[in-house]
TrEMBL record:
GO terms for molecular function: 2-polyprenyl-6-hydroxyphenol methylase activity; 3-demethylubiquinol 3-O-methyltransferase activity; polyprenyldihydroxybenzoate methyltransferase activity. This is Ubiquinone biosynthesis O-methyltransferase. Its EC number is 2.1.1.222, 2.1.1.64. Keywords: Methyltransferase, S-adenosyl-L-methionine, Transferase, Ubiquinone biosynthesis.
Length: 233
C-alpha cells in the first residue's frame, strides 16, 4: 500500500487552486521559501545540480530551485497540485523543472542514487510512515549528495504555537492542518536519517514573530526546524 493518507491528499487537493496566491492559506510557505532556499543553496550550491523535491505540492520550492540553476523534478501524489505546478511553470517561463505523480518509495526503486540534492519540506508530518520516506530519500541521493528536510517538533510549545496559535488564534493556517501526534522530534528524525545511511550535517530552527510578521532561521528548533544531511561519498 502507498505511504499516503487519503484525507491529507484530499485536504491539499481542495486548496490546490490557491497554491500561488500569496495571501492564501499558503502565505506562510511563500514567506519562508526565500529563507529555506538560501539556506539550501548556501550549503550545496544549486546551480548545475540535479534536484528532487519530494511532496512538492504546487511547486513553490521546486520552481525556486530551478530559478537558482538546478535541474529539478518535483513529485507528489496530489494530482491537482501537480497540475497547478505545471501551469505555473508554463506561465512563469520557468525552465529546468518538471513534475511527476509518483510515490517517493517507487521513485527510489526506479532511480536510485540519481540526484545531487533531495528536499522534503513540510511533508513528513502528513504521511503515515515518515521513516519510509526518509529511507527513500537516502536511496535517491547520490553518494556525496545532500538531503534537506523540514517538519515540526513534538512538545508542548509546538502544540501551543503550531496548532493553537497558528490555526486557531492567528488563523495563519486552516484549522486541522496539522495533527500533533504526527510531529517528529529532531532526535527522532536524526535517527531516521542515520538509519537511511545519511549523516546529519546541521539543523536550523524556523521562528515567526507575530509583531513584525517575519520569519527567521536561527537555533530555536522547538517548533519548526530544518535538517541538513549528506550521503557519505
Amino acid at each position: 500500500m502507498a505511504n499516503v493518507d487519503a484525507k491529507e491528499l484530499e485536504k491539499f487537493s481542495e486548496l490546490a487552486h490557491r497554491w500561488w496566491d500569496t495571501e492564501s492559506e499558503f502565505k506562510p510557505l511563500h514567506q519562508i521559501n526565500p529563507l529555506r532556499l538560501n539556506w539550501i543553496d548556501g550549503l550545496c550550491g544549486l546551480a548545475g545540480k540535479t534536484a528532487l523535491d519530494v511532496g512538492c505540492g504546487g511547486g513553490i520550492l521546486a520552481d525556486a530551485m530551478a530559478r537558482k540553476g538546478a535541474n529539478v523534478l518535483g513529485i507528489d501524489l496530489a494530482t491537482k497540485s501537480l497540475r497547478v505546478a505545471e501551469l505555473h511553470a508554463m506561465e512563469a517561463g520557468t525552465e529546468n523543472v518538471a513534475y511527476r505523480e509518483i510515490a517517493v518509495e517507487d521513485l527510489a526503486r526506479e532511480r536510485p542514487a540519481s540526484f545531487d540534492v533531495v528536499t522534503c519540506m513540510e511533508m513528513l508530518e502528513h504521511v503515515p510512515d515518515p521513516a519510509s520516506v526518509v529511507a527513500a530519500l537516502g536511496q535517491l541521493v547520490k553518494p556525496g549528495g545532500w538531503v534537506f528536510l523540514s517538519t515540526l517538533n513534538r512538545n508542548a510549545k509546538s502544540f501551543l504555537f503550531a496548532i493553537v496559535g497558528a490555526e486557531y488564534v492567528l488563523r495563519m493556517l486552516p484549522a486541522g492542518t496539522h495533527e500533533y501526534a504526527r510531529f517528529i522530534r529532531p532526535s527522532e528524525l536524526a535517527q531516521m536519517c542515520r538509519d537511511a545511511g545519511l549523516e546529519v550535517q546541521g539543523a536550523k530552527g524556523l521562528t515567526f514573530n507575530p509583531l513584525t510578521q517575519r520569519y527567521a532561521l536561527n537555533a530555536d528548533t522547538d517548533v519548526n526546524y530544518l535538517l541538513a544531511c549528506r550521503r557519505p561519498a
